[in-house]
């Protein structure tokens, strides 16, 4: 008998919560803040994407390079900088990755951390 009371009270409680959720008023989603004006010129962004494409092709071509891991990490940081609109920083990372892939001796990047 106690089990049935427990089940019945659980069902009643669940129905009460569900009906309250359905009866709640619908709140309109908050408006997104206005977009900030772009500070990067379209040509700088295009250069960032173009140089990134060149480095990507170079990474695919030089897959056996001893510096491939360091070059890939710099390339990924460059991608993030380019996506955030920091095309100058992105291009710097891309150039560093190109240098690593064009050299024959193993090197490590100076720093991939952002200041």
Draw up the topology in text.
Layout: H1 2-23, H2 42-61, H3 68-84, H4 87-102
Word description of this protein:
The protein has helices at 2-23, 42-61, 68-84, 87-102. The chain is mainly alpha-helical. It has a domain at 42-102. The longest helix is centred in the N-terminal third of the chain and has 22 residues, at 2-23. The radius of gyration is 27 Å and the shape is elongated. The mean pLDDT is 77.
Salient structural properties:
115 residues, mainly alpha, single chain
Write a compact overview of the structure shown.
The chain is an all-alpha fold.
Distance between the ends: 68 Å
- Share of helix, binned: 55-70%
Coarse shape: elongated
- DSSP helix count? 4
Give the beta-strand count.
0
Rg over CA atoms: 27 Å
Q: Please describe the biggest sheet, giving its number of strands, its sense, and whether it closes into a barrel.
A: none
